[in-house]
Design brief:
By secondary structure, the chain is α+β, with helices and mostly antiparallel strands. The protein has 18 helices and 19 strands. A hairpin with a 2-residue loop joins strand 7 and strand 8. The longest helix is centred in the middle third of the chain and has 23 residues. Its cofactor is Zn(2+).
């Protein structure tokens, strides 16, 4: 994507990272590769602009990329939620500047807090962002913002800007679409894989002006549909609170706070967006306007029972435990370590963030003896190998560990510690001990071996832990969020303060900006329906 329209809070890249390798030149029509472009009229501004992508091309490329999205990310298998979001989206789009498009709205089965759009009228929201919104009007704000990117032709402008930078339309489209789905870490990883890093970063983001325009259009589309545009303020506050919660949690765990949106300076911070959208929303309050109900009750009924957090299909993190029912395996992180569930690997990371165990599934073609496979892996690219093999058993699963040094063709030496294990369901896994440097690796040696030794076939207890968490709507208790947290499933997997903060975040009551103006955190009234997490 550009910077994520709705930035993710999780640092873990998801399957969208793989889209960079699968989207090819065939994805784009030959017309898009033309150097001259054509003049089109922007539907929002009414101004003529040169573009390498006219409306038919937008529609064609949107259709192709939409199919790629659905290959890389599953649509959420809940007809009630899909129908609700589509109905709301069609209502908003009908009042937009491009009502003529055949709009498509999809909820993706992802825990990430994200939303994005493709040219031609394809809009996506994740179940992850829906968990943190508090009303239909807030969801309309998110979708209105994404509709605004489409109506103002920001994707086509990005492709044109990329061509002007001399790197070609293909790079613009691939980077723009892939990064939009991958989030901050996905963008960082991908940027490191291309040679024109600066240009990739330039094009991967929507400009500050484009983001502001999308916010303005979101507010306008809310007003046209009789939702109070001030709900756009609430949406941006959700994102700002996400950043604060992530920072507070990191500090409580002794980690460095995430850097937020600073990875691309062209993207306005959520603090700046919050200030801007407050100013925009005020324009719709004079003269005083009466807006319809924000649809909070309808919204809570819709998200009731929706999966929260990790899904069984991707594997779930439950405190220090990682359980993947589909693969039939589980791991446990050492005390103080964290589990990161990525698209291509599971990583158990120490508190300092300078060492970890990276676990990957080998392809079915990885046949033969452990010794032969390790020899193939270690001696690739004419490497010379010095070290020892050690036969092991991990909870009854055959394994072989290698400790040694690998020298490349130039003679440079790298210490290597890895284990090959025959896992459940005839799948093989490679576990690598990685550190920032030799000293970090040495300090983490004992917990790394402990983490590796935890690899196992799932047990009945693991299977029970992997049961999905779901959103539930319950009356707010007299004991406030502390009581709500104690009665939620979160209480068994995280500290009380973190569990309470998580539920505050889900109910728009987290952080200093959620105060009542007198320095007190705003809380729901006793008996008011709120969201919690159960099974």
């Amino acid at each position: 994507m550009h910077t994520p329209c709705i930035p993710r809070t999780s640092p873990t890249a998801r399957p969208w990272q793989r889209a960079a390798a699968t989207l090819t030149a065939a994805t784009l029509s030959s017309a898009l590769l033309s150097a001259c472009g054509s003049t089109v009229v922007n539907p929002v501004t009414g101004e003529a602009e040169r573009s390498v992508m006219d409306e038919p091309a937008e529609i064609t490329q949107g259709q192709k990329a939409h199919q790629q999205v659905l290959k890389e990310q599953r649509a959420y298998a809940n007809p009630k939620v899909q129908a609700y979001v589509n109905t709301l989206g069609q209502k908003l789009a009908a009042q937009s500047h491009r009502a003529n498009l055949a709009w498509t709205f999809t909820v993706l089965d992802s825990p990430e807090v994200n939303a994005f759009a493709l040219p031609g009228g394809y809009v996506y929201v994740t179940r992850g962002i829906m968990a943190y919104l508090d009303s239909e009007a807030e969801l309309a704000g998110v979708m209105g913002h994404e509709i605004g990117h489409v109506t103002a032709r920001h994707g086509a402008q990005r492709a044109t800007r990329q061509q002007n930078a001399g790197l070609g339309v293909l790079a613009a489209t691939v980077l723009g679409v892939v990064l939009e789905g991958a989030g901050v870490r996905g963008a960082t990883d991908l940027a490191g894989q291309v040679s024109q890093t600066a240009a990739a970063g330039y094009v991967a983001s929507y400009s500050r002006e484009q983001e502001t325009q999308a916010d303005e259009l979101g507010a306008e589309y809310l007003a046209r549909n009789r939702y109070d545009p001030r709900n756009m303020v609430d949406v941006i506050q959700v994102l700002k609170s996400q950043e604060q919660f992530a920072a507070d949690t990191a500090r409580a765990e002794g980690r460095q706070a995430p850097s937020g949106n600073n990875w691309l300076a062209s993207h306005p911070s959520n603090a700046q967006r919050l200030a801007d959208i407050r100013t925009i929303a005020l324009q719709y309050q004079t003269p005083p306007t009466r807006y319809d109900d924000d649809g909070r009750a309808r919204y809570l009924q819709t998200v009731e029972g929706m999966v929260f957090g990790d899904s069984r299909e991707e594997g779930v993190v439950r405190g220090p435990q990682f359980v993947h029912e589909g693969l039939g395996m589980a791991l446990t992180a050492p005390s103080g370590w964290r589990v990161r569930n990525g698209s291509d690997a599971i990583t158990l990371v120490n508190a300092a963030g300078d060492a970890g165990l990276v676990v990957t599934v080998l392809p079915p073609s990885a046949q033969g003896s452990h010794e032969d496979l390790l020899r193939q892996l270690l001696k690739a690219n004419q490497n010379r190998v010095e070290g020892n093999l050690d036969k092991r058993s991990l909870h009854g699963l055959p394994a072989t560990h290698f400790d040694g040094v690998v020298r490349n063709a130039q003679g440079a030496a790298t210490a290597v510690h890895l284990t090959l294990v025959d896992g459940p369901l005839s799948r093989r896994y490679l576990m690598r001990h990685l550190g920032r440097d030799a000293a970090a690796l040495q300090r983490a040696d004992a917990p790394l071996r402990e983490a590796e030794a935890s690899f196992r076939a799932i047990t009945p207890a693991d299977r029970e832990a992997a049961r999905p968490w779901v959103i539930k709507a319950v009356p707010f208790p007299k004991g406030g969020f502390a009581e709500l947290a104690r009665s939620s499933v979160l209480a068994a997997f995280m500290p009380a303060a973190q569990a309470e903060g998580q539920l505050r975040l889900m109910n728009s009551a987290y952080g200093q900006d959620g105060t009542d103006g007198a320095g007190h955190i705003a809380e729901p009234k006793v008996g008011q329906m709120v969201k919690t997490i159960g099974r």
